[in-house]
Amino acid sequence: MPTPVVLVAGLHATARTATVEQLLAEHPGSLAIHHDLRQVTHGRVRRSVRDRTDVLDTAEVRLAHGCATCTVREDLLPQLVRHAAGASLLIIDLWDSIEPRPVAEALARTEQLRLTCVHTALDAEHVPLDICRGDRLAGTGQAATAGDQRHLAEVLARQIEYATSLSLHGGDAEDTELSAAVLGHLAPHTPIVTIPDITGPMLDVHELAQRVDPATAQLPADRQTGEVTTVVWHRLRPLHPGRLFDAMDELVTTTVRSRGRFWLANRHERMLAWDAVAGVASVDDAGPWLAALPEAAWDLTSPIRRAAALDWNPIIGDRVQHLVFTGPGIDRDRICGLLDSCFIGRDDSLPGAAAWAGYVDPFSPVLNLEENA
Predict the structure, then answer these.
(1) Where are the beta strands (DSSP E) in 37-112?
(2) Is residue 265 part of a domain?
(3) How far apart are CA 98 and CA 168, in angstroms?
(4) Is the pLDDT of residue 23 over 60?
(5) Position 191 in a domain
(6) 191 and 232, same structural domain?
(7) Which position among 145, 236, 238, 257 has the lowest Cβ density within 10 Å, counted as fewest Cβ atoms?
(8) pTM above the 0.70 mark?
């Protein structure tokens, strides 16, 4: 029978270590594997294997392809398989800035292992501050590679939103209350637990991906918890690319976390993904809308994606504007009004009209990467 595996992620090393120690104590015969990336900028990665009482093995691992995530994945899987037969539970103690998704998806392809939990451990004192920080990981000493350009808050958001459970450590009662409120907005469907539950069935990584991928993401609902607010903007009309681009700076800098899916009048066939945290925003092409596909191709999409047809509009199909903004003291009317002002008007060309080709598209540099290469 495959050995159960729990993946423990988190930027806060003390919180992550506390969770790993709890799991080792709770499950006799369990082992924890950790890759230390403190010297990764010098090409060195240190792997350790331990049980509840001692470090059983350490080794220096060569950096694969200059990529820390690749190194962890390529060295981790053989180590897990090697120890699987003799362990009751295998615990993956991920380095601070390693994101859990690629590791989880690699585990799913290994028959001897059964991933039962993806857990993110957090420091209650730091969560509300760190989710607002625009610092690059290189500046905090948590970079995963020498050229790591990611921001601390974006990694923290992905660790929180991908996890199947969360835990809070440290801080006082007020810190815990505020952090729990923040997590309730960022990941409302994810339980906050004392210790990860590793007794469940093997996780389906395709379902985990659908929880966070733009086309199928379980986006938060309108909510107010103390000083934390989540605003949902849900519309159907097409957006003008220039007007939306001009509004982005205010939308991103006056909120902490925002994400969702939307469509532009000049790109009516493509679903666009919005992702912003701590003032850092990205817009990506998330593929075609169902309405832009021949019906025969629908069978190639996931059932949860096809469920969008339940809200099918006879004119625009499954196209939708669905953006969610979270932060303290958000002016709901201002956010919604600003976005409403970005719709195309009566004097603008209809979606998909050839006339749009004559307009400057400010999103072109990031959305037409293949054309620009």
Answers:
(1) 44-50, 55-62, 89-93
(2) yes
(3) 19
(4) yes
(5) yes
(6) no
(7) 236
(8) yes
